[in-house]
Design goal:
CATH architecture of the largest domain: 2-Layer Sandwich
Structural class: alpha+beta
Radius of gyration: 19 Å
Strand content: 25-35%
CATH class of the largest domain: Alpha Beta
């Protein structure tokens, strides 16, 4: 993951003397090449001679919504995101769909940092291959909700994909659809058509991305169903692996996080089909609170975002914890 969005500068602590994990809003490691994304901080790492360049990816406790990093932290969120991603990387490897960028997770392998930094990183870091990111968000939707539903109401389709008339919000689609979006360096990502994505990065690349994204979504959806969950939609990020000299190869790999409550909509299956919004185990709870703030004229979806009330923070982490528990079965 190589994002350029700016995040807060100051690092929160790691572990206090009582053994409780503190929130990590940002990091400040003695490593080069820091890039701060919406949730993750990324650093360059030295690689063994002849091997591809490496990066350290650190999942903080930041939370973003509507492409805005909020000022409130969700304690332990970064560790839960990492835990969930690692389990999915393992499964996707077993399914033999695509390789990924993950090398290791042990902070003891990170050179040149303090013992306290290693303690802070434990459970929330990944040592990864550096890749050339394809600047397209690969979104797969199996159910109609969110920005997809808003677009469907306007023109009867999503990202140029025509859908049957008469669908309602939270309805299942006839088949999963691939709906790419632009990967904005600043501001908001925008839904685009497959043809627009092809014009940006090439038709051959987009065909590979679409086939791979849908294949992962289908396998993951089946597994979620066995655990009482519905994977309504998700987004993936891919890149091309680098060789030992840092040159891009033709090897397409899965990067960033994968199938977390930050990048996906998870619904409790038993709450779907009631005509009401399903119970979600993701950051939709935060989005709904922000939408209420917007409706009241208290926010306009531009930075800075509003502080989250304590009860919203508590209920959000409960949802992430429940998702992690159900997905680790």
């Amino acid at each position: 993951m190589q994002e350029n969005a700016h995040a807060p500068n100051m690092a929160a602590g790691s572990v206090d003397h009582g053994g409780r994990t503190e929130m990590v809003m940002a990091t400040n490691l003695a490593l080069g090449g820091k890039r701060a994304g919406k949730v993750r901080d990324v650093y360059d790492l030295p690689a063994p001679a002849g091997e591809c360049p490496r990066i350290l990816v650190v999942a903080t406790d930041r939370i973003s919504a509507f492409d805005v990093v909020l000022p409130s932290a969700i304690a332990r969120k970064g560790q839960l995101l990492t835990q969930i991603s690692l389990r999915w990387f393992e499964r996707i490897r077993q399914w033999k769909i695509i390789s990924d960028h993950l090398i290791a997770t042990d902070p003891e392998l990170v050179p040149g940092i303090s013992a306290s930094d290693r303690a802070m990183l434990r459970g929330r870091c990944m040592i990864c291959r550096r890749v050339n990111i394809v600047p397209i968000e690969c979104v797969v939707r199996g159910w109609l909700t969110g920005s997809g539903y808003a677009e469907y109401k306007k023109n009867g389709g999503v990202c140029g994909v025509a859908l049957p008339a008469g669908l309602k919000q939270w309805d299942r689609l006839p088949a999963p659809i691939f709906t790419p979006s632009s990967k904005a360096q600043t501001g908001h990502d925008e839904n685009i058509s497959f043809q627009q994505a092809c014009a940006a990065v090439g038709e051959g690349v987009m065909q590979r991305l679409r086939e791979t994204s849908v294949a992962i979504y289908k396998e993951a959806s089946e597994l979620c169903a066995q655990r009482g969950l519905i994977l309504a939609d998700t987004k993936f990020e891919f890149g091309f692996a680098l060789d030992g000299q840092g040159n891009a190869t033709n090897e397409l790999v899965l990067a960033d996080e994968v199938l977390t409550p930050d990048s996906s909509r998870y619904w409790i299956a038993a709450t779907v089909g009631t005509g009401k919004e399903p119970q979600s185990l993701d950051k939709q709870f935060v989005r709904n609170w922000l939408l209420a703030q917007e409706a009241a004229g208290l926010w306009n979806r531009c930075p800075p975002g509003p502080e989250l009330p304590p009860d919203v923070i508590a209920k959000t982490i409960e949802r992430y914890e429940q998702a992690a528990a159900m997905l680790s079965q």
